[in-house]
Amino acid sequence: MEWLDALLRYDGQLFLSLNGHHTSWWDTAMLFFTRKESWLPLYLVLIWLMVRSFGSRSWYILVFLVIGLVVSDQGTGIIKEIVERQRPGYDPAVSPLTHIVLRKGGEFGFPSSHASNAFFVVAFTGFLFRNRTTLMALLLWALLVSYSRIYVGAHFPLDLAGG
Q: What stretches of the chain show up as alpha helix (H) in DSSP?
C-alpha cells in the first residue's frame, strides 16, 4: 500500500516539524495542557454551567457525559492494541529526532485518547449549550490539548486526527 506508506512518511515529517520548535517555557506550558489533571477546573466549570442551566435534570446529563468519556477513553485504548502504531518515542524512524518532554503511556499511540476525550467534550457540550462562544473556547482548548500531544512527543498528527 504505497499511499499508506507515503501518508505515514508525511505524518512523520509533519510531526518532526511541529515537535521541533521547543523552549523551556513552552515545555512547561505544554505539560500543563497535556496533563489530564489540568482539565479539572474546566470540568468543574462545565458541571456548574450544566447545573445552572438544567437544574435537577443536570444529573442525567452528567451521567451521559461520564459514560461518553469512559467509552471514548476505553475505546481508543482498545483500538491502540489492535492497530499497534508506535508512538514517536518508540518509532525508530523518528525517535532519535524527537523532543520528548513527557514519556508516559504505552508503546502505541493511534488513536489519541487525549484528543478523543477533548473533542468528545467539545461535541457534547456544544450540542448541549448551543452557545457559539462556549463552543469556540472549548474548541481552542481541544486544539491546544491536541497540539500539546505532538509537542511533548507523545503522538503523531494522524494519531490526533484518529482521536
A: 2-19, 24-34, 40-54, 58-83, 113-129, 132-151, 157-162
